Amino acid sequence: MGSPQLVILLTLLVLAPEVILKGTHRKPVPLGSLAPPLAGLTKDYYEAGFYYEYEEEPPSFQARSQTFTVEVGQSVIIPCDVDNIGHNKLIIKKFAAHGGKERLLAVGDEKVTRDRRISIERARLVISHARPRDAGTFLCFFDIDPPVQLKHTLDVQFAPTVRSLAPPEQHVPKGTTITLECRAQGNPEPIIRWSRQEGPLPSGLRSEQGQSLTLEGVDRHVEGTYLCTADNGIGESASAAMTITVEYPPEINTEKQVVRTGEGDHVDLVCLVHGRPEPDVTWTRDGHQLPDTDMDTQLYLPDGQDNAHENHLNLIHVAHRHTLTIKNVTERDFGPYMCIAENTHGQKSATIQMTGLPKRPIITSSPIGGESSSYTLTWETESYYPITESLIKYRKAHLGWSSNRTMVMAGAWTEVSQKVKPVKVREGMRYATTHTLQNLEVATDYLTVIRVRNKYGWSAESEHFSFSTKKAMAVLQSTSSSSGQEAISVSMLLLLFSVFSLSRM
Fold first, then answer.
1. Concatenated DSSP letters for 13-77?
2. Cis bond upstream, residue 277 (ω within 30)
3. From CA 228, how far away is CA 241, in angstroms rounded?
4. Range with the lowest mean pLDDT among 48-57, 202-211, 298-307, 348-357?
5. How confident is the model over 210-257, as pLDDT tens digits?
6. Which residue from 335, 260, 228 is spatially nearest to 290, judged by alpha carbons?
7. How many CA atoms lie within 13 A of 476 on its CB side?
8. Does the CA dihedral 153-156-157-162 come out positive or negative?
9. Is 309 a residue whose pLDDT tops 80?
10. Short-list 63, 38, 69, 62, CA closest to 52
């Protein structure tokens, strides 16, 4: 017989196999491949030339494959819970999200990685303070045949970062086309938006989306600091700044093209100059340069930019205000003055006329007269000295009919000159004047121009002004006429009047 232990084992197999074989399964094995069956094996376990070998069931995972999403800094548990682990060793590996070598993290209850943020707790991998590099695929498996494995995916979201691919500051000539470009990183993929510190973009929009921004044919109006801002909804957005400075020839505007003044007055002639590099400015009269002692240069800020913060942001858009001061004006000082600005990109000039003459009048009366044979003109003008005389010229504005019913051309100019005492409209140099023209024709259109005079001479002529006398009488005359030919003639004349009046509306 065999040893006592073998006898006991065989006895148990025969009498209570359900106890010994609990949790196992039977596997038939051909007799020829093994030693002869043991004596005393019952029929239940030995039949048809086979006897049965009992094995343990393989391990199985309790969880399904999952995808875990966390933000940077959060903790996450990767579950590898298992049934029927027996004497098998659970192995956990990690495959990086964007390729790279696999990493062995744990075998059984033993952690292999040196990363202190990772721990093993009862077949679970715990990652504290997740980082972007923790993202990837985690494989829980047993090294048996056939293999038993479980895969989990970890996605670590993080706030964006952004960097510009263009220099932080660019000086470019006017007319250049510039492309600003940024690249952003983050999870989820960030969206890039462009804006401008000084206000709207050159397109007029407050912001535009895209990795690049193209500025075509730049000039000084597109100067500024451009921001590309990346945002993906995680944490704070990130921005990169790029400043564009445009070099261009001088540009000049005058505060007044004509300055009206008089003897003893104090006058400032002003030019507003843009340009980069900053232009050098000189003043001349009759081709001769004027001394610098009479000049002043100040930084000029447009209206509405008196806030210190706004001034700082808009500094690159300001002009320089160049002033030529003339004290105790005399008649000899009247005439044209020229400010000349020059830099490396070119030269520009502007002329300011200093004069004592009055400004050309502006006619303010209604074009439709209320009287049949007269019309009252009203006009205003500016003059440093009082207006002393007015010159009115007027004539018929279009074709008419003579006494023998033949068509005649517009009449010649009639001049009316008068000494006047105008009324001051308000404090300053503005004057208003009136004059009534007499002996005008009924229902007739006229043209008029006016000039005014002060102690220094005549102003330029006003713009041509159209007016008409009262037209109701013409309708009555045409309806009361006893001659059919006269009625037709008057009707044709009225039709011409109406067409001409409509063409001027």
1. HHH-HHHHTTTEEEEEEEGGGSPPPPTT--GGGEETTEEEEEEEPPPEESSPP-EEEEETT--EE
2. yes
3. 7
4. 298-307
5. 999 999 999 989 999 999 999 999 999 999 999 999 999 999 999 999
6. 335
7. 7
8. negative
9. no
10. 38
